[in-house]
Amino acid sequence: MRKKIVIIGGGFGGISAAQEFGDYEADITVIDKTNHHVFQPLLYQVATAALSPADIAAPIRGILNKQKNITVVMDEVISIEKGSNNKKYKVSF
Ligand SMILES: Cc1cc2nc3c(=O)[nH]c(=O)nc-3n(C[C@H](O)[C@H](O)[C@H](O)COP(=O)(O)OP(=O)(O)OC[C@H]3O[C@@H](n4cnc5c(N)ncnc54)[C@H](O)[C@@H]3O)c2cc1C
Q: 39 CA distance to ligand 1 centroid (A)?
């Protein structure tokens, strides 16, 4: 059976993980409560008006759109429950 991988958050960690899993034989779902990835190290430049917010944010779907096994969902994860066999998890959003 094809594996299902859920990645919560499209920050540095989530995007890196999704890109790493891009070649895997698995269906990957990236869930983020926003639709964009923020390059946080440049937040200071936005705060000082040296850059606009759009310069440091990009749609998560756009970043991952070349990887056909990835679905991006915009929603907030509210719980993760471990299944009885300790192998399957139920992610609620
Ligand atoms: C101003 C600033 C400057 C920085 N400068 C540097 C630097 O120069 N060098 C460096 O190495 N690091 C820097 N960092 C730290 C670096 O940005 C973080 O360590 C890194 O972003 C953490 O990555 P992450 O994927 O763990 O979390 P994040 O990048 O914060 O991503 C978390 C993602 O998860 C989503 N999310 C959270 N909860 C939920 C939920 N319940 N359901 C769905 N989605 C959810 C969020 O919307 C977010 O997109 C800086 C941070 C800041 C704030």
A: 8
Sheet with 3-8, edge to edge strand ranges: 3-8, 26-32, 70-74
What is the average per-residue pLDDT within 57-73?
A: 95
Atom of ligand 1 nearest to the CA of 13: 25
The distance of Cα 93 from the centroid of its chain, to the nearest Å, equals 14
Cα gap 7→30, rounded to integer Å: 5
Q: Please, what are the domains in the chain?
A: 3-92 (3.50.50.60)
Distance of alpha carbon 18 from alpha carbon 34, whole angstroms: 16
